[in-house]
Every structure is written in structure tokens, then in C-alpha cells.
Write a structure and sequence with these properties.
The structure is a homotrimer. Chain A is mainly α. Chain A has helices at 2-5, 8-32, 37-59, 70-92, 94-118, 123-144, 160-175, 181-201, 211-218. Chain A is built from nine helices and no strands. The N and C termini of chain A lie far apart (49 Å). Chains A, B, C: Residues 13-87, 99-173 form the Glycine transporter domain.
């Protein structure tokens, strides 16, 4: 599917870029948590590969991609080395990291949905696994670092919504047999731009009813 | 097995009811943790399907039931909507929720044991997976919410014991080839009633030896 | 492979000894966290079997060894009983427990690497899974107990490095077709001794660059 849509080298380059920026976000959190260099490498790798790993276990793609392609092993280590030596500089370009992270989010929700569908899952479940692929690594990162997952928190810009939009678009395209290089790239782009707007304009999702007044008091 | 024991529609209705109440417990915790609506939906879904998902990965039933039956996807979302708009009312009927949760506990420990046995596991391991099915979702819920799992805590009414009793009864019935609709319903009922009594009478499990005096000091 | 290297009974005895000491470490943490006896049993079992369980799910060895061999079920329960009744004494021999834990670390990183290779994984990934086998249970333990995994923390003696050394040695031996009872025992021994030295001499891994001065201020 997607593999045929793009030239493989383009797709692979995008994939590795996504792995890299997710690994950066894991490594930066590890530095903030004062982990040692091995802890940084573990958190970078878990963040980068966690979402795809969970997807592959659920669809029965064993051994998972993360354990068959050396790029998934080496890329997080490169991100680790970069962050270990240059983390103040990387923090300073946090905005650039956020842009790449949004690109990874867009790419992974589309790729994840497509792969799950190829393994025979129904489209609603394929879309769920697209979201898991894009957002699961960040949840694994936060659980390992003993933090409340930023995906779930109210005081963070929306992350799930762009992933849901991108994965749903991909699922709809598959349903209408309209998945092609252009349309799948546009799906990823929609998720990417939605996430960028969320960061730029501070978009948050609402909380439970009645919580708003309580929040006003807290603030 | 169990599928033949009950009429499928009865079993399915019980199953969905169990999913629903587990999802309610996840959604309520998410509201208390101040998550946004997507965080509530994620925690509700993870709580409702987490135990069965772990069981299915371990017995090799991929894709897991949670990813093949739309009821497992839609039911937690309904529970989310209910809790988002009515959570003060749902909190107020917390006692009713606890009763349904106990029913889910009873049902899932028996169903989980039976399914694991059908997939070829030995009876002791099938019983362990019955307990995982019943109690695993709550552990996933607490880990994602960054809380100490209430399953493990001393200051909570026993939850593991009813699940162990129900799963062990189911395993014994299978061993003596006495599993039928009535006997498996009685196993689930035993776990259900034991959990209700634990809540009603505040039954707790002991801690490690020597801890009791320390507890007295703490109190 | 390894199964042929040692007489099965020796290997099995070592394996069960590793399970036992990992279970002790889980049970001791559970006592410190004030869990009830069932919480202690759950944490002991998860610590002892978690690493191998994750490895088996990733390589597709389902049902995992932990769910086919009664020793994996009974041994953690024995460790639980021991700790519940004698935990002050067990704490007092914490140094002995640390020695056994180091032995389990050495054994499991070699066994895990070999098993993953037998299931068809490439050697770098087999070595990663060796490390997961040896260190994964401790991470599961800390996540369930809602603590920052001690594997990742800077203020703990190195644990990952001995596992990486042992797993890499085993992978190199496989690569050069030199894996035999003596050489694999030496690999496990290297990891074991490295871990013992780390404890004895307080070896820690460095943190990210620039963190050292910050650490000096904190101290």
C-alpha cells in the first residue's frame, strides 16, 4: 500500500525522521528527569519505537518492525548522543523539535492505520491503531518516566485530535479506495497542520462538564 | 465452551455490561485527575479492554477481541459521554457502579479462565489469566493515571481474592468436566458476592508480618 | 542451544534461582510500599517473569514460558511467603540478595539473547532482548509500584551496562560460532562480576553533559 505509494526511499527517510524526533523528545525528558546516559538511551528508544511496537504486537506482526530494521535501533542512539552532548542547544530549538514531532505524528498515524488494515483489521480498529502508532510512544515515555501522560492531560495542547483526524482520513480513503500517494500525504499533512495550529494557538480539549468552574477556582 | 453454555446474546449482553462498568470506573478516575475529554476516553477504553487485551496477547489470540468487535470500541465511548456530562450524578451512584464492577469482576474471571483454557493453556495458568482478565484493566487504568494500582494497596477492600476464587472455581469445574451454564454462573456469582461482602464489611487482606504494629503507629 | 550446552537440570536450576531472587526484589519493594499480601505476590511475580514475558511476546513465543512452566508460577509465590514472614531478616541479608540478583542478571541476559536468536532475530536485536530479559522485570516492578525505574536513575549503580556486556558477549559468541557451555558461562560470569563491582565500588554512569555542575550544586 503506502510502500507502493511513495518511492520506498522517501517513505523510509520520513519514517526514520519520525523515529528520530520522537527519540529526541524522549531523550529530552530523560535529561530533565536526571537519568544517566543509559536511561536516556532507553527512554529515547522506548519513545521512538513504543507506539509501533504495541501496534505490531496487537496485529500479530512479530517480530515487530522495531526488531527487524537496524534503523530503529541506531536512530534513537544517535538522538541520544546528540541530546547528551547538546541538550541545552536542543532545548533552545524546542520549537523546531515540536515541528518535527508534529510531522512524525502526521506520518505515523497514516502509516499505522495502513499497516493495521493490511494485517486484516477492520477500518475503525485500523484507525485506532494509527492513533496508537502516533501517540503510543509518548505514553510509554511518560509512564516509564513516572509522569502523568501528557496525552491525557487537560493543560496540554491537543495531541490526540490531530492523530484521530489523520488516522480517520486514512481509513476513509481506504474505504473509498482512494488511497494514493497524494491523498495519503494530504492526510498526514492535515494531522501535521492541525497539531501545529494547536501549538501555535494553544488549542486544548474541554474537560468534563462542571469542571470548568472548578478550573477557574484553581487558576 | 461458555459460548455454548449461555445463549450467545445473554453472554454478549453480560460482556458488554462488564465493559461498560469498567469503562465508567476509568472515566471517573480520569475526571478526578482533571484529564480532557480525549484523556477520559483513552482511560475508559484502556480500563475496559486492558485485561482482556493482555490475556489475548499472552494466549496468542491476535488480533485481540478488543480489536475485532465494535462493541468493545463503542461501549467505552458511550461510558465516556455519560461521565463527561453526568459525572457528579455518576459519582453519587458510586455504590451502584461498585455493584456493577463486582458483576464485571465475577463474569470476566470466569470468561477469561475459560478462554485461556480453550487456547491450550494449563489450568493453573488459565486461572491466572482469568484473574488478569478481571483485574488487569484496573491496573492499566492506575498505571496510566500515574497512581499506585489500587489492586496492590493494603488500604483497599480485597479485589484479587474474589477474582482468584472465581477463576479457581472455573478451573476446577473444567478439571472435573463439570463446567456448564449453571456451574459457571455460580462461579461468577461466588466472585461477585465475595467482592460485594468485601466492600460492605471493609474486608482487607493482611500485609507482611510485623507491618501490623507499624500500621498501628501510623494510624 | 544453551539447552544443549548445560545439562538441562543445571540450566533449569539456575533459571529458577534467577526467578527466585528477582521475585525477592519485587516482594521487598512491595513490603516497603505497604502492599497487602496479594499485592506482594503480584509484584513478586511480575518482577520475576516480566522481562522474559516481554521478550516472548516480541519474538512470538506464545504462550510465553512463564505460562507453560509451573516453576515460574510457584517460585514467586514461595519468595512471597518467605518475604511476608521474614522480610526484616531478608532486608538484613540485602547484600546476599544483591549478589543473587547479579547472578540472575548475568544468567538472564545470556539466556535471553540465545532464545531470541533461536527465534530468528538478528544478533543486535537478540542482544537487546537479552538486556530486556535481564532488566525488564525490574522496570515492570518499578512501574507497577509507581516509582521511577531504578534502571534509568542516575543515583543507582549501573545495571544496564553489565546486562549489555553479557548480552553482547553472547551475541559475539554466536556470531563467531563459539557459543558453548564454557563460553556462555563466561559471558554470564562477566556480567555478574561487572554488576558486583558496580555495587562494591559505587560505579555510576554519567549523565548528560552540563549536568555534572548542576549535580555538584544539588549535592
Amino acid at each position: 500500500m503506502l510502500t507502493d505509494l511513495f518511492t520506498p526511499s522517501v517513505l523510509q527517510a520520513l519514517d526514520i525522521a519520525g523515529i528520530f524526533v520522537f527519540a529526541i523528545s524522549g531523550a529530552l525528558l530523560a535529561v530533565r528527569k536526571n537519568f544517566d546516559v543509559f536511561g536516556i538511551a532507553v527512554l529515547a528508544t522506548a519513545t521512538a519505537t513504543g507506539g509501533g511496537l504495541i501496534r505490531d504486537l496487537i496485529i500479530g506482526a512479530v517480530p515487530p518492525a522495531a526488531f527487524t530494521d537496524l534503523g530503529y535501533l541506531v536512530t534513537p542512539l544517535l538522538a541520544t548522543v546528540l541530546v547528551v552532548f547538546l541538550h541545552p542547544q536542543v532545548e533552545r530549538i524546542n520549537r523546531a523539535v515540536a515541528v518535527f514531532d508534529a510531522a512524525g505524528l502526521g506520518l505515523f498515524c497514516v502509516v499505522g492505520t495502513t499497516k493495521a488494515y493490511e494485517y486484516g483489521l477492520g477500518l475503525p480498529f485500523a484507525a485506532v491503531l494509527g492513533v496508537v502508532t502516533a501517540a503510543g510512544g509518548g505514553v510509554v515515555r511518560d509512564v516509564l518516566a513516572n509522569e502523568v501522560p501528557s496525552l491525557l492531560r487537560w493543560d496540554r495542547e491537543i495531541y490526540a485530535v490531530p492523530a484521530i483526524v489523520g488516522a480517520s482520513l486514512a481509513a476513509l480513503l481506504i474505504h473509498f479506495e482512494a488511497l494514493n500517494p497524494v491523498s495519503s500525504a494530504l492526510s498526514a499533512l492535515a494531522a501535521f497542520l492541525l497539531r501545529l495550529c494547536a501549538i501555535r494557538f494553544g488549542w486544548r480539549a474541554p474537560r468534563a462538564w462542571h469542571r470548568r468552574s472548578a478550573a477557574a477556582e484553581e487558576a
